[in-house]
Structure formats: C-alpha cells, structure tokens
Amino acid sequence: MVMAALVIFMRFLHIASALTLVGGTVAWRFAGAPSAESASGDARTRVENAFAAAWKPFAIAGIVGILISGIFNFLRKTGLTPAYHAIFGIKVLLALHVFAALILAARPDNPRRSRQLTGVVISGLVIVALSAVLRWLGQS
Fold first, then answer.
1. DSSP structure class, residue 138
2. Model-wide pTM > 0.85
3. Which sequence spans correspond to the domains of the chain?
4. pLDDT at residue 78 in the model
C-alpha cells in the first residue's frame, strides 16, 4: 500500500514538474516576454530581469522534481527493449538541454533569453511526444 502511494506520488511529481517547466516557459516566452517589449530601454531590462528572477525558483523546483521522479520511475521498469532505451536516451539529452537553457535564461541581463526560451519550448514539446512513444513501448 505504501509503495503504491509512492509510485502514484512520483508519477504525479513527474507530470506536475514537466507541466510547470514546459507550461511556465510557454507562458514566459509567448506572454511575458512580448509584454516586456512594450517597455523601453532600462524599464524593459528591469521587467525582463524581474520576470527571470521570479521564474527561477519554479524552474529549479521543476528540475529537481523531474530528476527525482524520473530516476525513481526509470529504476522501477524492467524488460525494456533497445528501442525504448534509445528513445529514452534522446529524451534525457533533450531534458538536459531544457535544464541548462532554463538556468541560463533566468540569468540577469541575458541578451539571448528569447532564443533560449524558444529552444526550451521546442525541446519540451518533443520530450512530451517522446514520452507518449515511451509509454506505448513500455506497455508490453
């Protein structure tokens, strides 16, 4: 019973963390960043840096949640095929890209922030698609 509760919690943590990272980044890139563009000069920089500072704790919490729950979930799986491992490896590499780009995007006075956020959105959506494939492959 306790193990079942832990498994359910870890699955919830993984989905909630992914939702926070991808959904929050989509909101930041396509709502927050364009809103900051309406300001000019120093005001724009202050707004962008304030948004990045406010987002950083959520990004770190999401990254930690993904890592803890992802490792737990993966270690519970058995009998996985080489195709599963190959796709999982791609998913992990994309996740590392998401983590690094989010940490960089949250740095103050970052002139590449918009590009990094766009990369996170694209990689995050590909990760979600790969997760669906892995779910199907792991149903044996």
1. T
2. yes
3. 2-137
4. 87
